[in-house]
């Protein structure tokens, strides 16, 4: 075979195996993006329309105001007498943006005054996203029509858990390793389909190792698994992975997407940069196999239980790291009240979508258009977060923490005096610094780590003189909120709504929260009256992580506009068993990954493609693309450079010296790292229920030109140098990167490319060769 040039091998390998997902994957990504944009409309855009526009541009009033209706999909799509109201993805050409920006003296809306810049920016962002609107499949509930709670409780996700028997899987009972299989096989049988055979053992160990710890298996681990002929070899492999400290890192990152984790909080907050305590707590909680009910309780109410371990107070970062906005005292009280209400709204949205899979925030301005959630339900929950404020506290027992906080306040006052002193070397300043040192030395735990947490405290926005506004925080005091009519804090109902739980989820009388903020009672309701829904939502999230697609494909929307489950009986059985087994997350993993369904090959077959091209019935395993964290971590692992240290402060990803797992890379919600952004890492500004996988030319260019990828290739070359002769080195490469042996054709191609050069040329050729392997589909995907 003639010797191949570097240019030729790049085309043979990269262009034939580049990380370009199939069209179906792109279509799926587009569908997810559209759904997220539609949710953005409901939770962000519709409240702005309600505050500023619906009075003149609703179904009732639009005909008299330029024929423009902003209250319905049909109305926005149609536009008004001036034509289309928006041009998707082009804010500068959209009449809507022109009107609200007040740039055209003949077109200024709302006419009574320009809306806040923050609201205008939300509208610009929505138009940039394509101006996507929900494609409602049901007729929206009329404004005057009240919610029928009993009818609402008959919806599948809002019913109590059903006692579902495990079905007979004939004629495939020999494929039933776990009850999960019986449900899948029975459904396949009903559609005239058969399951796929097991994947080979190399594929299986690579699949489950990435799934459970987010790293590739080592060649030694693969060899040991292949040599283990015992019937429980795979089961013991799974147990080893679940016991690995890296399990918590992989599954902790999954949770941080939901929690909109950021390392950089708002610059004006004290203690910024301490967010990593929450991230490390999440990792540790998964590694401890903390039961899910306790996992949630600590994140919402760790401070409200006397026996909480101080270490577990870091869990409050779920709320303590919520997005917050600067409240400029020179702004008028109505504007500040809107900003504060937006923050409460974000908490309602994240908590209800994460734990209940319900879009309760869509009821901010009016009863939910489809789900049995009233506007009163919304404000009963918003009151919980109006009674909860940010705090920083040492991870110490409460009494000691209070002493440390008091000492910090003393030091802050002394430092302020030093700052004001004109002569920094005066005797007075020397004495002040001495006092600071004495306070530090006299306070045990003064330098203990501090976490971003929350505490019970109500906030009120009040005038502070003729042209200023102040925030009045009242520690330990709860607050019930009135209904903000059309979402407007300046137009409220006469009476406040008691804090409580959505009525449709209350099994008897409405659940009211009367203890402090109500956060502890909220947890009790999540795992009491709403336990069935809470279990369904989490089980579905874990299933989605293992199969790439949930039994419910809308993991944070189990309402009427969400997708119904593909296997409702299986979801019921898993949720009931999960609850019955004490919310044991390890049990849930084992039940899924030890099944024959999980072990199937990902290869297509003609019958499956004809009957179920999207593989909703799971006649095969789904081929999945690695998330950017796993991809980066895998490159470090196979190059032998991975720093496996667990926990600690965030490190910037931009530096090549950072060899730690990507979960420890700094996430800045205002300035996301370029590599993360390029490879579909979610924005840290909001709850992200699932990753969107895109395929772009920029990703290809990154693989080809990134110093990070190039340097990993060089490190792999150094690692395989001592493996033996050239064929042995190539074999070692394939074992490291792909957990398999090269084929004869692959070995011949490598030998043709790598032989016949000088030592210097060989080094360059080897680096180019390994760089090419790192850019292949096989490295980026898991079969």
TrEMBL record:
Protein name listed in UniProt: Planctomycete cytochrome C
Cytochrome C Planctomycete-type domain span: 53-113
Keyword Cell membrane: no
Highest rank taxon of the organism: Bacteria
Biased composition (Basic and acidic residues): 469-483
Every DUF1549 domain range: 179-389
Swiss-Prot/TrEMBL keywords: Coiled coil, Signal
Organism: Maioricimonas rarisocia
Region (Disordered): 469-501
Alphabetical list of Pfam families matching this protein: PSCyt1, PSCyt2, PSD1
């Amino acid at each position: 075979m003639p010797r191949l040039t570097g240019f030729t091998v790049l085309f043979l390998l990269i262009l034939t195996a580049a990380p370009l997902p199939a069209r179906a994957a792109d279509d799926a990504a587009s569908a997810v993006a559209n759904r997220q944009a539609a949710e953005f409309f409901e939770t962000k855009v519709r409240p702005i329309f309600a505050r500023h526009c619906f009075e003149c541009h609703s179904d009732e009033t639009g005909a008299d105001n330029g024929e423009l209706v902003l209250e319905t999909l049909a109305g926005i799509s149609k536009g008004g007498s001036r034509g289309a109201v928006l041009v998707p993805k082009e804010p500068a050409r959209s009449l809507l943006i022109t009107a609200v920006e007040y740039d055209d003296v003949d077109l200024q809306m709302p006419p009574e005054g320009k809306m806040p810049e923050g609201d205008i920016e939300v509208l610009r962002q929505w138009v940039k996203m394509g101006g996507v609107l929900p494609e409602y499949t049901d007729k929206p509930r009329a404004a005057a029509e009240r919610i029928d709670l009993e009818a609402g409780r008959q919806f599948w996700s809002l019913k109590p858990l059903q006692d579902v028997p495990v079905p007979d899987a004939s004629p495939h009972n020999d494929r039933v390793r776990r009850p999960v299989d019986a449900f899948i096989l029975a459904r396949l049988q009903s559609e005239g389909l058969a399951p796929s055979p097991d994947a080979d053992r190399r594929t299986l160990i690579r699949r489950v190792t990435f799934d459970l710890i987010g790293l590739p298996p080592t060649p030694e681990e693969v060899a040991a698994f292949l040599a283990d002929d015992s019937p429980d070899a795979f089961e013991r492999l799974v147990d080893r992975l679940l016991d690995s400290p890296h399990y918590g890192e992989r599954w902790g990152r999954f949770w941080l997407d939901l929690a909109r984790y950021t390392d950089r909080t708002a610059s004006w907050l004290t203690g910024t940069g301490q967010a990593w305590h929450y991230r490390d707590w999440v990792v540790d909680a998964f590694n401890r196999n903390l039961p899910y009910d306790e996992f949630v309780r600590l994140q919402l109410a760790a401070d409200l239980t006397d026996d909480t371990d101080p270490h577990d107070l870091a869990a409050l970062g779920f709320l303590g790291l919520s997005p917050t906005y600067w409240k400029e005292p020179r702004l008028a009280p109505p504007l500040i009240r809107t900003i504060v209400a937006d923050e409460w709204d974000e908490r309602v949205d994240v908590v209800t979508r994460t734990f209940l899979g319900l879009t309760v925030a869509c009821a901010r301005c009016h009863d939910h258009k489809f789900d049995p959630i009233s506007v009163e339900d919304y404000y009963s929950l918003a009151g919980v977060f109006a009674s909860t404020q940010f705090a920083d506290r040492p991870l110490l027992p409460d009494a000691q923490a209070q002493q440390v906080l008091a000492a910090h306040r003393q030091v802050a006052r002394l430092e302020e005096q030093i700052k004001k002193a004109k002569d920094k070397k005066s005797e007075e300043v020397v004495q002040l610094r001495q006092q600071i040192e004495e306070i530090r030395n006299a306070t045990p735990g003064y330098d203990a780590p501090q976490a971003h947490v929350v505490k019970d405290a109500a906030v009120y926005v009040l005038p502070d003189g003729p042209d200023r506004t102040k925030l009045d925080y009242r520690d330990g005091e709860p607050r019930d909120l009135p209904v903000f009519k059309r979402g407007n804090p300046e137009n409220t109902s006469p009476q406040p709504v008691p804090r409580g739980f959505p009525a449709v989820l209350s099994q008897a009388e409405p659940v009211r929260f009367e203890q402090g903020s109500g956060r502890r009672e909220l947890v009790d309701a999540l795992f009491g009256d709403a336990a069935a829904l809470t279990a369904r939502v989490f089980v579905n999230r874990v299933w989605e992580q293992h199969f790439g697609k949930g039994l419910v494909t809308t993991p944070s929307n189990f309402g009427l506009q969400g997708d119904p489950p593909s296997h409702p009986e299986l979801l019921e059985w898993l949720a009931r068993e999960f609850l019955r087994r004490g919310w044991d997350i390890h049990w849930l993993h084992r039940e899924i990954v030890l099944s024959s369904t999980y072990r199937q090959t990902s290869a297509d077959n003609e019958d499956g493609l004809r009957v179920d091209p999207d593989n909703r019935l799971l006649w095969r395993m789904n081929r999945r693309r690695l998330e950017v964290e796993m991809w980066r971590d895998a490159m470090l692992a196979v190059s032998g450079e991975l720093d496996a240290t667990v926990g600690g402060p965030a490190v910037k990803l931009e530096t090549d010296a950072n060899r730690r797992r990507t979960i420890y890379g700094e996430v800045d919600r205002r300035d996301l790292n370029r590599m993360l952004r390029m490879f579909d890492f979610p924005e840290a500004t909001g709850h992200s229920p699932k990753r969107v996988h895109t395929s772009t030319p920029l990703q290809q260019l990154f693989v080809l030109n990134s110093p990070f990828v190039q340097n990993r290739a060089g490190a792999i070359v150094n690692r395989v140098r001592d493996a033996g002769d050239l064929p042995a080195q190539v074999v070692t490469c394939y074992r490291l990167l792909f957990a398999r042996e090269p084929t004869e054709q692959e070995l011949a191609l490598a030998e043709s490319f790598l032989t016949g050069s000088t030592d210097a040329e060989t080094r360059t050729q080897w680096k180019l060769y390994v760089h090419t392997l790192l850019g292949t589909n096989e490295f980026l995907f898991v079969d």
